[in-house]
């Protein structure tokens, strides 16, 4: 486990955050009337005798009175529960996560998501080959009814686990081939999907009514696995009630309403995909696109889809945007993006170029913001307020009810200095436990050993003293130390991001046999460019000019490719132990 050293050089003396502080770039400063956030704020003001002059005042109330805040969220979204809650929060122990939220309540996750059952569109599905389909809310309800009846017929009950492999388009295609079906049918105790779904029907062919099991708010609902960027993936167990955190994000912060369309560029199974499911509860539809962002066929690019299907809110990663830009996949003249209101950039530190690309090539009036969340939280740490200024590369505001801070080495909240991202008060978005984590040992070691009593997300961050915006720099346990100076790989990336010769890059720390540590920068060249001593010097000069000589890695090397995890994060496990390389001396 990484620990900050109290003797370390101050983290805010170098790096790209100094540049962002000295010259904040405004990307949004408009007023939008009658937002869902304003409606909710007025309800709180009237009920509690408050008057909030700004978002920051409202946020302070929401974290100072977080039980009242989550109570109002429950009522604002009219949570369906067969039995009302007795208390909003009951402490069951002295730990940060030792809480019973909405104790006594009985509800069902699916029932709350499927409260709409008419012929409005719920899902739109398309791929880069031109195939498309759609599902209405009523059709979705009937599909769920089929699955529920079949599962009950096969003995599934409360507490059982169901595994899902939703990224298996190829598997589904193969499984429908006649020769495959005939072979599978010979396997004992095997069952094919259509046969399975039919098994839930009664002898007369009818389906039983859909029964929604009424369960506690904190009943386990899903296991999401972390990406494994810095170690073995952790199975994060979320509760059924976490959907109210998603409703806060989708309706209040992103201002989604009935009829709007949501799109997220991410693999199914990642928490970013899951977190948008609650939009179904407010009548918004989900657009699902199966394909690569750099697909260039006319009429089937990502931009074609966002325009054609009138997407309102899109979540894109920095790596996706960089791929689109470098591949030259840009919106064509005449594309209509009037419906597109917000693009959130997440899953990694965003770059100024990402904001410039979106507002320059897509829509100059588009609201663009970095957003900050994690697999461990079913709700976002950061939020959006359409009536507050937003600045390039920053997460605009902390989410309502989320007491987000940056801590220094002594556990003090700091602004204008780099440190550890922490949350000081509990929310329903946090997990109930980690899968197969006996006595919560791994959970406590990972999230509570640095700063007891607060949630540490193990990310390095910085709060701009001028704008109050939040910069997420990267994993804190991957902060680099060279010549007794600490800096982030993000500082290096900031400097070389616009170099036309480079397709990708990754900067890591290497512990040498001498006891010293040095930073090593690996670069992947674009087609048509060669890695030469002159280019190495150009990279070095660019880093020194754009950030600082203190951020210059000791070694700059070419690499044929860079490993990534399933969520497009750099996978550093492959770089940690050079003794396992075929020629470790190459890296010395």
State the helical fraction. Answer: 25-40%
pLDDT averaged over residues? 85
Largest beta sheet: what is the strand line-up?
7-6-11-10-12-13-14
Point out poorly predicted stretches: 1-14, 167-177, 575-588
CATH class of the domain at 26-108 and 215-255 and 341-467: Alpha Beta
Which architecture of the domain at 26-108 and 215-255 and 341-467 per CATH? 3-Layer(aba) Sandwich
Computed structural class: alpha/beta
Largest sheet: 7 strands, mixed
C-alpha Rg, in Å? Answer: 25 Å
The dominant shape is globular
CATH-defined fold name of the domain at 26-108 and 215-255 and 341-467: Rossmann fold
CATH superfamily of the domain at 26-108 and 215-255 and 341-467: ANL, N-terminal domain
DSSP summary, beta strand count: 27
Which strand-content bin applies to the residues?
A: 15-25%
Cα separation of the termini: 25 Å
Total helical elements: 17
Protein name: Acetoacetyl-CoA synthetase
Domain Acetyl-coenzyme A synthetase N-terminal: 55-112
Domain AMP-dependent synthetase/ligase: 213-427
GO molecular function: acetoacetate-CoA ligase activity
Task: Write a brief caption for the model.
Strands 7-6-11-10-12-13-14 form a seven-stranded mixed sheet. The protein has a four-stranded antiparallel sheet with strand order 18-19-21-22. A three-stranded antiparallel sheet has the order 8-9-20, with no helix packed on it. 26% of the residues lie in helices and 21% in strands.
């Amino acid at each position: 486990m990484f620990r900050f050293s109290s003797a370390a050089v101050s983290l805010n003396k170098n790096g790209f955050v100094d540049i962002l502080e000295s010259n904040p770039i405004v990307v949004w400063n408009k007023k939008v009337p009658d937002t869902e956030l304003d409606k909710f704020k007025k309800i709180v003001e009237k009920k509690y005798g408050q008057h909030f002059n700004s978002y920051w005042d409202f946020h302070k109330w929401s974290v100072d009175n977080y039980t009242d805040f989550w109570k109002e969220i429950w009522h604002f979204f009219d949570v369906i529960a067969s039995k009302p809650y007795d208390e909003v929060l009951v402490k069951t122990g002295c730990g940060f996560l030792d809480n019973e939220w909405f104790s006594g309540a009985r509800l069902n996750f699916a029932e709350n998501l499927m409260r709409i059952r008419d012929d409005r569109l719920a899902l739109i599905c398309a791929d880069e080959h031109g195939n498309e389909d759609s599902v209405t809310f009523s059709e979705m309800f009937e599909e769920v009814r089929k699955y529920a009846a079949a599962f009950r017929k096969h003995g599934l009950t409360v507490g059982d686990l169901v595994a899902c492999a939703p990224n298996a388009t190829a598997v589904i295609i193969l499984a429908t081939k006649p020769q495959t079906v005939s072979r599978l049918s010979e396997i004992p105790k095997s069952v094919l999907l259509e046969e399975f779904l039919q098994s839930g029907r009664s002898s007369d062919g009818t389906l039983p009514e859909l029964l929604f099991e009424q369960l506690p708010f904190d009943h386990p609902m899903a296991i999401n696995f972390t990406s494994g960027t810095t170690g073995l993936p952790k199975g994060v167990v979320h509760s059924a009630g976490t959907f109210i955190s998603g409703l806060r994000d989708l309706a209040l912060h992103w201002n989604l309403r009935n009829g709007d369309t949501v799109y997220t560029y991410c693999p199914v199974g990642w928490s970013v995909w899951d977190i948008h499911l609650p939009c179904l509860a407010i009548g918004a539809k989900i657009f699902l696109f199966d394909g690569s962002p750099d697909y260039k066929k006319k009429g089937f690019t990502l931009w074609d889809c966002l325009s054609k299907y009138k997407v309102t809110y899109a979540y894109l990663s920095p790596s996706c945007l960089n791929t689109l830009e470098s591949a030259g996949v840009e919106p064509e003249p005449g594309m209509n993006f009037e419906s597109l209101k917000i693009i959130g950039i997440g899953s990694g530190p965003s770059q100024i170029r990402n904001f410039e690309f979106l507002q320059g090539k897509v829509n100059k009036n588009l609201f663009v913001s970095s957003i900050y969340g994690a697999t461990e939280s079913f709700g976002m740490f950061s939020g959006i307020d359409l009536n507050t200024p937003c600045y390039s590369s920053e997460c605009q505001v902390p989410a309502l009810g989320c007491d987000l801070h940056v801590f220094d080495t002594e556990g003090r909240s700091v602004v204008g200095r780099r440190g550890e991202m922490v949350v000081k008060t509990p929310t329903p978005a946090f997990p109930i436990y980690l899968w197969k984590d006996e006595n919560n040992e791994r959970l406590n070691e990972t999230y509570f050993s640095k700063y007891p009593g607060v949630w540490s997300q193990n990310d390095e961050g910085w709060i701009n003293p001028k704008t109050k915006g939040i910069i997420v720099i990267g994993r804190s346990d991957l902060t680099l130390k060279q010549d007794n100076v600490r800096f982030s790989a993000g500082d290096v990336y900031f400097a070389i991001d616009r170099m036309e010769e480079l397709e990708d890059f990754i900067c890591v720390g290497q512990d040498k046999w001498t006891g010293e540590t040095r930073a090593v920068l690996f670069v992947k060249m674009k087609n048509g460019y060669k890695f030469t001593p002159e280019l190495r010097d150009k990279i070095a000069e660019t880093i020194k000019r754009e950030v600082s000589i203190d951020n210059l890695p000791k070694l700059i090397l070419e690499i044929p490719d860079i490993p990534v995890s399933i969520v497009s994060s750099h996978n550093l496990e492959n770089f940690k132990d050079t003794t396992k390389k075929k020629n470790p001396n190459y890296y010395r």
